[in-house]
Amino acid sequence: MTSAAAARSRTLDVIYTHNDNRVIGFVRSAPSQKLLVLASLNDAPFASGYVVGTDASRLDDGGWQEIFNSDATSYGGDNVGNGGATLRVNGGQINAVIPAHGFVVLEKVS
């Protein structure tokens, strides 16, 4: 992460929850940065992707780059994630790989 301003921010918007799938998504924001955190407590990863949708006004369209994956091999995980890719948000929807018992953080880039 180049700047941790949004990670330290008190501005947090829970944009998605799904109790049965045990998934939560929230945006942390600061004036110069937005972070999207997608987390799962599910026993299996969403390795083929998981669509998170919210009102378009709550999740900016454009590119969101994965900047952290709690399941990375450097943390002893299986490296189930988005490989640092830039994913697209369109109309408040994003399709991201989410690891089991872990989370990914994406930063708004364009």
Rg computed from alpha carbons, rounded to a whole number of angstroms: 13 Å
C-alpha termini separation: 16 Å
Main-sheet strand order equals 1-2-3-8-5-6
Whole-number average pLDDT?
94
The amount of beta strand, in percent, is: over 45%
Give an overview of the whole structure.
Helices cover 4% and strands 51% of the residues. It has one helix spanning 5-8, and strands at 12-18, 23-30, 33-40, 46-53, 62-69, 86-89, 93-98, 102-108. The strands form two sheets. A six-stranded antiparallel beta sheet has the order 1-2-3-8-5-6. The radius of gyration is 13 Å and the shape is globular.
Reconstruct the topology from this structure.
Layout: H1 5-8, E1 12-18, E2 23-30, E3 33-40, E4 46-53, E5 62-69, E6 86-89, E7 93-98, E8 102-108
Antiparallel strand pairs: 1-2, 2-3, 3-8, 4-7, 5-6, 5-8
Concise description?
The chain is built from one helix and eight strands.
Structural features:
110 residues; mainly beta; six-stranded antiparallel sheet; two-stranded antiparallel sheet; 1 helix; 51% strand; globular
